[in-house]
Specification:
Layout (H helix, E strand, L loop, with lengths): L1 E6 L3 H12 L2 E6 L3 E6 L2 E6 L23 E4 L3 H10 L3 E2 L4 E3 L2 E7 L5 E7 L4
Parallel strand pairs: 1-4, 5-9
Antiparallel strand pairs: 2-3, 3-4, 6-8, 7-8, 8-9
C-alpha cells in the first residue's frame, strides 16, 4: 500500500473532487485541516493550510500546492474518461500523449495538484 500527501486549499472541495470524479472512498475527515481518501492500495492524504503537514519548513519556505510530481491512475478507456471529465469542466495540463507504453494526460485537482491518467498500450 502506498500513501501520498497532497497539500490542498480546501479539504472539503478536494474530498468532493477525489470521491466524485476519481472514485476514491473517504476514510477520514478532520474538519478543514485534513482528510484521507483511498482507492485500491493507494491512500491519499489531503492536507489543508491548517494541517501539520502544511507548516513552513525550518528555513521559512512555504509548502505549496501543485508541482510536477504526480500520482498515476490507470484507466481502461482514456478517451472516454477525458471526454466525461472535460464535460464536467475539469482542467487538464496537456492533451493526450501517446508513447510506447500507452497513452496519458495530466489532470489537475482543484488546487493544481497533478494526476496522470494512464491507459497502457495493448499487449501484442
Amino acid at each position: 500500500m502506498a500513501t501520498i500527501r497532497y497539500l490542498v486549499k480546501d479539504v472539503s472541495r478536494s474530498i468532493a473532487f477525489y470521491t466524485q470524479q476519481l472514485g476514491f472512498k473517504l476514510e477520514q475527515h478532520s474538519g478543514p485541516a485534513f482528510a484521507s481518501v483511498s482507492k485500491r492500495d493507494l491512500t491519499l492524504w489531503l492536507s489543508g493550510p491548517s494541517s501539520s503537514g502544511a507548516r513552513p519548513m525550518p528555513d521559512g519556505r512555504q509548502q505549496e500546492t501543485g508541482g510536477w510530481n504526480r500520482l498515476v491512475l490507470q484507466v481502461d478507456d482514456l478517451l472516454s474518461q477525458v471526454e466525461t471529465m472535460s464535460q464536467a469542466g475539469l482542467s487538464f495540463r496537456n492533451e493526450i500523449e501517446t508513447g510506447p507504453g500507452g497513452r496519458q494526460i495530466q489532470l489537475e485537482d482543484p488546487d493544481g495538484n497533478p494526476i496522470e491518467l494512464f491507459e497502457p498500450a495493448a499487449k501484442a
